[in-house]
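ENTRY TYPE: protein
WANTED: fold as tokens:
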Amino acid sequence: MEDAFRSGFSSAFFQVLFEKIGKFAAKEINGVGLQVLRDGPLLKFWSLRVLDLRKAGLQKISVPVDHLKHLRYINLSENKIQRLPEGICKLLALQTLKLINCDELRELPSGLKNLINLRHLDLNTWGKLEVMPSKLGRLTNLLTLYVFKIGKDEGCGIQELGNMRFLTGSLCIMNLSFVANATQAKEANLKEKPCLDKLELESRDDITNSSDQEEVLAGLEPDMNLKELVITNYSGNRFPGWLSLLQLKLTNIQLQGCSSCSILPALGQLPLLKTLYIEGMSSLVQVN
């Protein structure tokens, strides 16, 4: 397998095999060290459904992929790529794009909003990616979106989350300091995302406008079915009333770096709460 891969898939056997099964997999050749994916027999695999290149040592993708119209699944996780080719945004049948542990990734293609059939966009919260591409709110069929990094530019705001009503599992919203007011926060429609189990709300630690932050957090009330909540670097003086609503089904709450907050709400009355973790709340003087 490795010899065929190194020689650019010159073996007719492998070409026929991949065309028949519709799959090009590199997960078993971690040591090859591709670095750059170039033109080659990949261009002939018109019927590909799955392109799995995780841990392939990729640093750059220079081969055009927009001809692979049948692709449903792309996994580029654990590579050192900095950018994705815009051609990916022409794969309108794509349902899954996995970019886990791509720590060097700096930006996503601007045309990502065109992948209207995308169900899963898997990203990490860490790494060098600073902001999501604009108009991502068009991806109304998304089920998985682990992280959404808010930007200052038009089309990069928290409002883009508004129509993503089918999100499931975990969601981390970062750069909340770029949300101007409660109106914008409410447009994220977190109350209408009943399938979310975990919500992380993270502000920048260099922004300290407490009054605005209090309004914003108040507007980010989640669905009552939420199980886990993490709030990081919140600069408000107090938490919103929804955090102690008896209807909340929270079992785990983490409050980290909320150094300006002096009053903790009555979290003890939450009927299902099992774990409360508090760190970096140096101004705390009252626990209700």
